[in-house]
Recover the amino acids of this structure.
């Protein structure tokens, strides 16, 4: 039946789209997390040490690291909704894929009842 194949194909595409969206979110999160581990400002904040800046270049480099740290933390936080939306899209597609046989069976039983 072509309509069943088309519906199944659309739902498979929806499921794959959900995995793609979720995968993008995971990639963004992991990328930000790995870069945060190497960030000098993050290391200094985690250690709790006070930093004495001796010249302008050291202060500027620390400022750049702090700005980068803030951007990476934002990237990491922005990745979470992508992961959630991806999971929701997969769930909707999967639910639809599971309901196709049930709906088809109900439709067939209604049509046989109408014939008798």
């Amino acid at each position: 039946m072509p309509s069943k194949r088309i519906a199944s194909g659309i739902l498979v595409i929806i499921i794959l789209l959900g995995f793609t969206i979720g995968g993008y979110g995971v990639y963004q999160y992991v990328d930000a997390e790995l870069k945060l581990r190497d960030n000098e400002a993050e290391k200094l904040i985690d250690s709790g040490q006070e930093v004495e800046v001796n010249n302008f270049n050291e202060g500027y480099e620390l400022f750049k690291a702090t700005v980068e740290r803030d951007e990476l933390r934002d990237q990491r936080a922005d990745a979470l909704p992508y992961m959630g939306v991806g999971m929701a899209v997969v769930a909707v597609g999967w639910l639809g894929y599971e309901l196709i046989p049930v709906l088809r069976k109900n439709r067939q039983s209604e049509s046989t009842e109408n014939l008798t």
